[in-house]
Amino acid sequence: MAEELRAAIIQDEESKRVLMLGWMDEEALALTRSSGLVHFFSRSRQKLWQKGETSGNVLHVTDVMLDCDEDAVLVSVHAEGPTCHDGSTSCFTPWLWRTILRRQSENEEGSYVASQLSAGVAQNARKVGEEAVELAVAALSEDDERVVSEAADLWFHSLLLLRSRGLDPAMVDDELRRRAR
Ligand SMILES: [Zn+2]
Question: Which domain, by its residues, includes 39?
Answer without folding.
Answer: 6-79
